[in-house]
Amino acid sequence: MTVHDPDLRPALDLAPGETEAAGILTIDLAAIEANWKTLAAMTLPVECAAAVKANAYGCGLDPVTRKLAKAGCRTFFVADLFEARGVRAIAPAATIYVLNGMIPGSAQGFADGSFRPVVNSITELAEWDAFLAATSWHGGAALHVDTGMNRLGLSLEEAGALAPRAQSENHGLTLLMSHLACAETPNHPLNDRQIRAFREIRMLYRGITSSLANSSGIFLGSTVFCDLVRPGIALYGANPTPASNNPMRAVIELKARILQVRTVSRGETVGYGATWTAGRPSRIAIVGLGYADGFSRSAGAAKGKAPASMVISGRRCPIAGRVSMDLVAVDVTELGEGRPRRGDFATVIGKEMTVDEVAAGMGTIPYEVLTRLGRRYHRVYVGA
């Protein structure tokens, strides 16, 4: 793994080897490339960019950027300048947009790396213009218009008032963008309201590249494509169409080592808080990962909630009790004597247990599962 901050390098160089790690995380870079090419083909002739923020959704900023750049991706979206510098080191000719915009005092960093801020407010635009006037730098910027998310972005009224700027010479805007709030729910009424609002704003900014569709937005149809689509989660194998079969290839496999198999008598409890009680003589496998590794505490058994599962010896086995910092107990009674054994692996995420299913078992979304993948795993990259 390449690290761009030298102060972090010694810590990350201590990542465990295969025989030292309790978990092995395999990331299929060829699958990420295939997913990007699938989305690019769906949206032709529109440009297909890539969101690689949050360490490429937990999959590794450097290897993912390298793979996508080689595949032909020319535009990347990141959250902040630190991530932007990481992408620039791999893709020197790429266009890089920084979604969180400019932190006060950070403008020079955009000029130094030739990055493009996503301007999210009138105040931010004024700061950007003042920097350009003071330095005579002519870097581009995106203008983010809020069409209904109510998060970052200029209001529709502010964007409308600024529209004459787009007709002036050297206006400096290279992208007009907005973000869909409910694209994963195709029939949600907010989708239509946002699409209509963005269409009206686009008409005022003719001649400027525009972008609305994220991963799920791509599957709403060509009216959302505009000039550039910017998929994120779909690249990494999660389902952008939750109500339908997943059209994307799986990207990650996470296996965790079984450290011990123990017998628990009927009536005994397992784990913190004694939240799980054996209703029969049971066999419990202790798996070597926990919430410190991104496997959420909410995956455990709790009153009124079915626990998440892991796949052991080809069968789904439920978690017994609470998830600990470094350990998870799994009920393997149904597997019978002799299975599993110490040193065997439980599949946490993989073909038999998708990232979407794992997220559902935790009561969360695959975005959170992927971006919380821990550093204590031994990482293996295939398809480079």
Model description:
28% of the residues lie in helices and 21% in strands. The protein is an alpha/beta fold. The chain contains 12 helices and 19 strands. The strands form 5 sheets. It has a 7-stranded parallel beta sheet with strand order 3-4-5-6-7-8-9. Strands 1, 11, 14, 17, 18 and 19 form a 6-stranded mixed beta sheet that branches. A two-stranded parallel sheet has the order 2-10. It is elongated, with a radius of gyration of 24 Å. The chain folds into 2 domains: 43-236, TIM Barrel, CATH 3.20.20.10; 252-382, Lyase, Ornithine Decarboxylase, Chain A, domain 1 (Beta Barrel), CATH 2.40.37.10. The protein has helices at residues 9-12, 29-42, 53-57, 61-71, 81-90, 107-113, 122-135, 156-162, 189-204, 215-218, 355-362, 366-371, and strands at residues 23-28, 47-48, 50-51, 75-78, 95-98, 116-119, 141-144, 173-177, 210-211, 228-229, 252-264, 269-270, 276-277, 282-287, 309-312, 315-318, 328-331, 345-349, 378-382.
List the SSEs and their pairings.
Blueprint: H1 9-12, E1 23-28, H2 29-42, E2 47-48, E3 50-51, H3 53-57, H4 61-71, E4 75-78, H5 81-90, E5 95-98, H6 107-113, E6 116-119, H7 122-135, E7 141-144, H8 156-162, E8 173-177, H9 189-204, E9 210-211, H10 215-218, E10 228-229, E11 252-264, E12 269-270, E13 276-277, E14 282-287, E15 309-312, E16 315-318, E17 328-331, E18 345-349, H11 355-362, H12 366-371, E19 378-382
Parallel strand pairs: 1-19, 2-10, 3-4, 4-5, 5-6, 6-7, 7-8, 8-9
Antiparallel strand pairs: 1-11, 11-14, 11-18, 12-13, 14-17, 15-16
Helix pairs in contact: 2-4, 4-5
